Amino acid sequence: VITKAQHCRAEIYLDGIGWVATDPADVRKVMLEEEKDGLPAEDPRVAAVRQKLFGSWEGNWIAFNDGSDIALPSAQGPELGFLMYPQAEVASIRLDCLDADAFRYAMTAREITI
């Protein structure tokens, strides 16, 4: 079960430059996981990662979607601004997709030949 392994990456448009890669998830990961009690955004280690990942990202990834304002079929909950994590509803109540202990799922991959 990989309920804690999601990753988010983004692109922003800068006038005069165009689309620029950013990796906010890895910056946040450093803030949350580098030290037991976390690191503030102004910590030099966070600043170094932010500088390195502004304009680049790690290349081993698969995009599952790029939608916005997503209405899930037959869902009772509101539209989603974006879809980063799997979503589920039980008895018309949307589960907390960030609660890895209460909402468990698995993503698997396998090679296919055509």
UniProtKB/TrEMBL annotation:
Naturally occurring in which organism (per UniProt): Brucella intermedia
Protein name: Transglutaminase
